[in-house]
Design goal:
Length: 54
């Protein structure tokens, strides 16, 4: 019966280790939200106004 518990513990540990690797990888990628330039902001505002009029 101890064998089954040991296997379950290994699966749990493997999942935690895999999740930690994914988290570390994502954090090290240095991802950032894209920044909108003045032109894009102006176009977005114009599109918003057009949609509000419809």
């Amino acid at each position: 019966m101890h064998h089954g518990m040991y296997c379950s513990d290994n699966k749990w540990f493997a999942r935690v280790a895999a999740i930690q690797i994914i988290i570390d990888t994502l954090e090290n990628m240095g991802l950032k939200y894209p920044q909108m330039g003045k032109k894009e902001k102006t176009e977005l505002e114009e599109a918003k106004k057009t949609l509000e009029r419809e």
